[in-house]
UniProtKB/TrEMBL annotation:
Gene Ontology biological process terms, A to Z: carbohydrate metabolic process
Descriptive protein name: Polysaccharide deacetylase
Lineage: Bacteria, Bacillati, Bacillota, Clostridia, Lachnospirales
GO molecular function list: hydrolase activity, acting on carbon-nitrogen (but not peptide) bonds
Domain NodB homology: 301-360
Alphabetical keyword list: Signal
Amino acid sequence: MKKRAMILTAVLTAAVLAGGGYFPTDIGNRLTQTVSAAKKDSDKKDDTSESEGSVLDQATLMYQQYNYDEAIKLLKQQDDFDTNKDYMDLAAKCQVAKSTLVEYPLEQITHVFFHTLIDDTGRAFDGDSKSGNYNQVMTTVSEFNKIIQIMYDKGYVLVSPHDMATVNDDGTMSRGKIMVPEGKIPFVLSQDDVSYYHYMDGDGCASKLILDENGEVKNEYVEADGSVSVGDYDLVPLLDTFIKEHPDFSYHGRKGILAMTGYNGVLGYRTDIAYKTGENLQDDQKKFLEDNPDFDYDQDVADATKVADAMKAEGWEFASHTWGHMNATERSAEDLKTDDQKWKSYVAPILGDTDMIIFAFGADIGDWSGYSSDNPKFQYYKSAGYDYFCNVDSSQYFVQITDQYFRQGRRNLDGYRMYYNPEMLSDLFDVADVWDSSRPTPVPQM
């Protein structure tokens, strides 16, 4: 029908262009009506095809990410399921794959984390007072890309603490269940301090997360010459791109967790209230406002919120890292409460509420044996809606699941760990295969 419409349109157009000749009005009308009807019929078929393609694409992605029940549910919801061979074939594939899944032991799920990634090592490791710290706690883009590829090749699959434990209606916790194909290895990934702090300006790291012209989350990156580029310069867009190419690296669409402070804002936007009130400003905040006289606080909040919403829609999660990067071991319960109220006032409205806290410095509120009901810090955090707690622990696995909380240790994949304890990472990758030769050695001791 589409071909016929194109032919009729050509005939009609040729007759009109000839001009001055005899062309009966009724024939022209009939041809126009035929072309119009053909176009509507063609458009209708195209719409149906696009709809089928969209459903099939969604279900295929679910299949690739081991979410077989949801894929089958989506397919069977379609009115033409019983007559659509593609739908029925994919549903059958899901049933077969589901029957081969095995339950993975939750206490054997590791959690790795990174700080902001370094893109330009020449600027990061330039010998100034910050270089040593960058060398200790950060990972380069090159290293990250190699680590992720090796872990993927080994069968690692991204999951979330929310898959490992669930919160009941009464606030208690229950164990989750993670079902994966034999040989797949679930793991959790997080990134700390994705605020692009002022002190990092000019040091070869991304400057913020933005939405590009296609609505995708990318980084803004300031080149050495001051020009601004947009692309994959830090963990979030790098991992997004990798999962687009390797969807089976994600369990049910999971990505990673961003552990967020608030005192310099979030995601590279200057969203803390101090930038609006001008009160209690640090020196670098004062300089920022002086250098940016047209700064629009409300616009930064709006832009950051759009980016956060886009990230959550793509499987990313957010956790509190305390508003002021506080050492929870050293600070009092009252200090932590005051700090958390700032997080809830100035960060949660942008990123959304969270039930996860990832402790800054890895400084936990209890020892290895667990949290007790008479621990005032735990009492506060639990009452404030936190159920998932993460510290830093060098062991391969550290997982506690009780009826009151979920707790997990995290492993730092940074310069310090790779240089001084490469054997502790051998289950994940061989450091020799990922080490960035542009790193100065020795890495400074902590």
